[in-house]
Prior knowledge:
Number of helices: 21
Distance between the termini: 61 Å
CATH superfamily of the largest domain: 2-methylcitrate dehydratase PrpD
Structural class: alpha+beta
CATH class of the largest domain: Mainly Alpha
Order of helices and strands: HHHHEEHHHEHHHHHEHEHHHHEHEEHHH
Amino acid sequence: MIEPMGVTNRLTKLAVFTHDLSFSDLSQQVIGHTLHVIRDTLGTMLAGATLPEVRGLAEMVNRLGGLGRATLMGRQQTASPNFAALVNGTGAVSLELDEGNQYAINHPAVHIFPAALALAEELKRSGAELLTAFVAGYEVAVRVGRATHLREAVHPFGTHAIVGTAAAASRLLKLDVEQIARSLEMAAGMCIASSQTAANTGASVRNLVTGLTNHNGLMAPMLVQAGFTGELGSLSVIFGRILGDSFKEDGLGDDLGREFYITRNYFKLHACSRWNHAPIEAMAALLVRKPFKAEDVEGITVWTYDPATRLSWNDPANGYAAKHSIPYNVAVRLILGHNDLEAYSEDAVSNPQVQSIARRVSVREDPTLTAMLPDVRPARVEVKLRSGIILTEMVERPRGGFDNPLNKDELEKKFRHLANMRLPSSSVAALEEMVLNLPDLEEVTLMSPLLQGVKP
């Protein structure tokens, strides 16, 4: 019989950090980098709002949404914070261009910021309050993710990041330490059962679980305020026994306030799972060093780490599935020469040349590469040509990470491209300027008209 456990000192540390963190505690480096994370996330939220299923969900506002001040991206219509968090969180992850953090083994920003923004709009919080709450939630999410070892069948999205979502929402609601601790417990018990095969087979429910994390994580502290109680010791139960097979609570939160992992994230250039990025860049490097053609290839072996070996499917059913297939991503890089959004179109996925190469790719674990985690996410690609020549390339630190960063121009270009998919250029320029001056905004709602598509 499993015995319930009480609120631990470790959980209390997460709650105290969430409660006590102030804007003045944040260095200029942390603030500046957080603004880049927020800008990048807003770009993915706006671009994701153009997708048919996200538009369809947003159009259910009258049935599901309720009244509120929270923005539905690119729409001149507002809704309750929980509904906006659901819609915007789903859209933000759907293109697979959202930032991530290898120490969290997840994508904290996309699980936290849509909810935090929606609640900050509803409560008319300042830009500094939003930024501080977001950082608090992000840091909590990394610690919980770092402590969790998920079961092989479980996809990271929709899992432990919800605790960070609840932390950010609790902070914006100005709860006390005890309420915050109870909210974190509540959130852990409101996780979605996230399936790895849903991602691999291209089911868009995989994107919806991120929206549901935003929704449920935002609701958790409100439910605590209403009088609901979470399971005592729920983090250990949910992440150590159900979704995960271990939860290392020792040391949880000990480095909060000293180490800000938000500055050790990665930004994406390739529109697919980060586990594909090292193989993609290894293939790109091979093509530069010794160009070859598809007809020259006998077979390709990708050596990578566990859990990236989960992305071994050779025949993705659609663009969503293709974003979670190493064989496809290596093949499309060879055939099309890029892994931009267009590489995951119906035409690209059905391209006979791409399909033929993808079937010749095998994905295998190299334990020496697994041992390099979490600091390094490497891959080695071996291409055997019909001539008998074997070409090999290793990439340890793919582009976009804190250890191989994108430059200022690349980050700006990415945001403008994504935001322009939903907003006119004049609005994008004004929005970018306002985001970079977010700490000075007296109310976050001053940014809302731009996000809704109202011309400046």
